[in-house]
Amino acid sequence: MAPIYLDDKISKNDLPRRYAIGLDLGGTHLKYGIISDRGEIVYKNFTPGRTSDGGKKVLNVMAEAAHECMMFAKKENITISAAGAGCPGTIDSEQGISLGPTIHITAWEGAEIAEAINKKIHLPVFADNDANFMAFGEYIAGAGRQKQFVVGITLGTGVGGGIVIDGNIHRGAVFNAAELGHVVVEAEGRVCSCGNRGCIERYVGAKYIVQDVVDALSKGEESIITQGLKSTGDITPILIFAAAKHGDELCGRIVDQMVKYLGAGLTSIVNVINPDVIVIGGGMSDAGPVFIKRIGDEVLSRVMKPVRKQLQVVQAQLGNDAGIMGSAMYAMKQLTLDNAQ
Amino acid sequence: MAPIYLDDKISKNDLPRRYAIGLDLGGTHLKYGIISDRGEIVYKNFTPGRTSDGGKKVLNVMAEAAHECMMFAKKENITISAAGAGCPGTIDSEQGISLGPTIHITAWEGAEIAEAINKKIHLPVFADNDANFMAFGEYIAGAGRQKQFVVGITLGTGVGGGIVIDGNIHRGAVFNAAELGHVVVEAEGRVCSCGNRGCIERYVGAKYIVQDVVDALSKGEESIITQGLKSTGDITPILIFAAAKHGDELCGRIVDQMVKYLGAGLTSIVNVINPDVIVIGGGMSDAGPVFIKRIGDEVLSRVMKPVRKQLQVVQAQLGNDAGIMGSAMYAMKQLTLDNAQ
Fold it and tell me: Looking at residue A233, what is its pLDDT?
C-alpha cells in the first residue's frame, strides 16, 4: 500500500520512520501488528481473543500480543514508540478502561486495558472503542482521507460506529458517542440488547439477519440457501447475500430489509452530523460494491437537497487492517500531541 | 437576568460593556434587540417578518430592524460592535447566504443576509440557522451553560436543532448538520417535506399534530377540544395540551405520540452525539414541565446504561429570547476570534 504521512508538512524521505503497535480486539479474534508512520504494516498476526474466558484473560492475550510485537521489533532493530488498542464496548479513552459490559466479552466492565498492556511493554498505550479506531484508520489512511467530517460504520455481528471531526475522534460526554448501531429506525421496533427498541443493529447485524432467515425457514418458507447445508446453524451472511444474488426470494427480502434500515438510519446520522463521507466497513461490507451502492442510493434518496450533491457513501479501503492501522496511527498522533504539550 | 461573561478569565467589573445586535427571524415575526456581553438585553422589539413577501422584502425588514437598534444605541451612547442574524433554513454561515428554500419564507434560496444588513449598519454581520443560534444562546447563557456537548431542539411549527461542541456550532460539511427534525423515527413512515420518510417533524411539528387532531375529528372521533371553537381551524397545540391534561382521549393520544417519537428520535441523537444536555425550546416547550419530564423519562429509558446517569433533558431557559441572545453573543464571540487572528 502507498505510504501515509501523519504530518504532510515535513519532508518525508529524509526522516527515519516511527512505529507503533496496533491491536484490534474483535468478538472472537485479536488482530495485531506493527505499523510505520507512513502506513506500512511491517508485522501482522492474529490469535484467538479468548473473549469468553473473561476480561482478565483477554487482557493477558492483548499484553502477550504486544510483547510479541516488541520481540519482533527488537529482532528487526525497529523502535516502537507507543501502542493503540481498539476494543468492543464503551472505553474511557482517557483512563484506558472499559466502562461497560459488552455482549462480545464476559466480565469486561472495568477492565484496565491500557495499564495491562503498558505493564508488559512499558510504553504509552491508548485504548479506545474498536469502531472509533476503524473510523480513524479510514480517516488517516483510507476512504475518508483528508476529510473534515468522517462517519465510519462497521457491519459485523453487531453494528459499530466512529465519528472523526477535524481529525479528532468524537467521543461525547461519557465516551458513548457514535453508537451508530443503536440509532432507532422503528420507534416501537424490536427490543435491542442495549435496552432500546428498533435499533439499526437489530435489523442488519449479522446474527440477526441469520436469525431472520432461520425463523422464516422454520415457518415453512423455502429458500435455496438450505441446499448443501447440514443444518440451519450453518447459515452465514455470506450465504444469504449469495442466495439473494441468485434470485432467492427470502434472502432477497432480508437484503432489501438491510438496505432499507441502513438507509433510514444513516440518513438520521447524516441529518445530525452532515459528514463529507460515510465509510462502510466490517465483515459484511465485503458483500460487495452492489450492496454498498444500494445503501448509498437509499441514503442519497432520503437526505436533504444540499447534501445530495456532496455526500459520499463508500466501502472501507483498509478492510480487515483498518483496526490495527487506526489504533497504531492514533497512538503515534496522540503521543506527538502529548509530547508537544 | 444574571450577567453573562464571554471570557471568564478577565476581571468583569472593571471593563466597559460591549454590545451586539441580535436578530431572530421566525416563520411570521422578526425578533431583535441589543445584548451586552454580560447577557443583558438593553433593547428589544419585534415586527412582522413579511416572510410571505419573498426573501428580498425579508432582508429589508431585517436591515431596518438592525438600523433601528443602531439609532437606539446612538441615542443611549452605546457602541455596537457587530450583529448576528438567525434565520430559518440552511445558511452558509461563512458567506452569510441562505443556501436552500424553506417552507417558512418564499424565495429564500440565495438570499444574501449578512450583506444586506451590513450595507445598512456597516458592521460585521454573522448569519446562521436560527436553531443553531438558539442552541448557542442556551450554551452561553441558558440551560446548557458551561457544558461541552449541547444539543438544542426547537419544537414549533417545524422542528429545528443546533449542536454546540466545545463552544463551537457544529455545522458539518455543507452547513446541513443538526437538522434534528429530520431524524427518522419510522423507516417507512409519513412522507416529509424534506423528501425523506418518517422524520420526527412529521409526528411532532405543531402543524402536523393539529392536522392529526383535525383528521381524527373529521373521522367522527369526539374530543372536548371542539367546545367553544367556531371551527377546527382554531385548534392550536396549546389547546391540544390543555385538552389532554383534562383527560381528553384523542388529545392525550396525540401528546403520547409526541412523547414516543421525541423519545425515540432524541435517543438516536444521543447515541450519535452523547451530549451533556438536551435543551428543549421553541413554542411548544411551553407546554410545561410535565411534558418536558415525560420526554426526558422516555429518552432516559432508551439510552445506554452509562448515559442514564449523566444525560440531562431540560427546558430552554432563555425562552423567546434564546434566538436574539444567541445571535448577538455569537457575533461578539466570533468578532473577538476574527480580530485575534
Answer: 93
Contact between chains at B182 and A265 (C-beta distance less than 8 A): no
Taking Cα atoms as reference points, which of B58, B50, B80, B53 lies closest to residue B68?
Answer: B80
What pLDDT, on the 0 to 100 scale, is given for residue A286? 79
Q: What CA–CA distance (Å, rounded) separates A23 from A97? A: 15
Chain A, 181 to 220: residues with Cβ < 8 Å from chain B are 182-188, 194-198
The C-alpha of B36 sits at a distance from chain A's nearest C-alpha, in angstroms, of 30
Q: For chain A, state the CA radius of gyration.
A: 20
Q: Is the ipTM of this complex over 0.90?
A: yes
| Contact yes or no for B34/B72 (Cβ under 8 A) | yes
Which residues in A lie closer than 8 A to residue B165 (C-beta atoms)? 165, 170
Residues B262 and B200: their CA atoms lie apart, in Å, by 7
Q: Mind telling me how many Å the CA of B305 is from chain A's nearest CA?
A: 8
Who contacts A220 (Cβ-Cβ below 8 Å, separation ≥6)? none
pTM reported for the whole predicted model: 0.94
CA distance A145 to A161: 17
- What does the DSSP 8-state code read for residue B276? S
Q: Which three cell numbers stand for residue B311?
A: 444525560
Domains defined along chain B, listed by start: 19-137+320-340 (3.30.420.40), 146-316 (3.30.420.40)
The grid coordinates of residue A314 equal: 463508500
Q: State which amino acid sits at residue B271.
A: N
* CA distances, B35 to each of B46, B191, B242 (Å): 15, 40, 35
| Chunked mean pLDDT (size 10), chain A, 341 residues | 48 72 91 94 94 90 98 96 95 94 84 98 97 96 95 93 97 97 98 95 95 97 93 94 96 97 98 98 86 97 94 94 96 90 73
User: Cα–Cα–Cα angle for A292, A296, A299, nearest 5°?
Assistant: 140
Identify the pLDDT of residue B1. Answer: 43
SS3 A303: coil
Phi, psi of A200 (to 5 degrees): -50, -50
Give residue B214's Cα distance to chain centre. Answer: 26
C-beta separation of A224 from A213 below 8 A: no
Candidates A100, A172, A263; nearest CB to B274: A172
Residue A319 C-alpha cell reads as: 478492510
Contact between A173 and A300 under an 8 Å Cβ cutoff? The reply is no
User: Facing residues of A45 across strands?
Assistant: A32
Query: Residue B5 burial (CB < 10 Å; 0-12/13-18/19+)?
Result: middle
Q: Is A88 left (phi over 0), alpha (psi -120 to 50) or beta?
A: beta
How far is it, in rounded angstroms, from Cα B167 to Cα B254?
36
Residue B132 CB contacts under 8 Å (≥ 6 apart), including other chains: B86, B91, B93, B162, B169, B171, B178, B326
Asked whether A196 and A265 are in contact (CB, 8 A), the reply is: no
Q: Strand ranges (DSSP E) for A69-181?
A: 80-87, 91-92, 97-98, 125-129, 149-155, 159-165, 168-169
Do the Cβ atoms of B265 and A171 come within 8 Å? no
Residue type, A92: D
pLDDT grade for B2, boundaries at 50, 70 and 90: very low
C-alpha cell of residue B25:
427571524
Of A162, A183, A266, the closest CA to residue B267 belongs to: A183
B94 touches B86 (CB < 8 A)? no
Three cell numbers written together for A102: 459488552
Mapping DSSP to helix (H, G, I), strand (E, B) and coil, where does residue A313 land? strand
Closest-CA residue of chain B to A90: B306
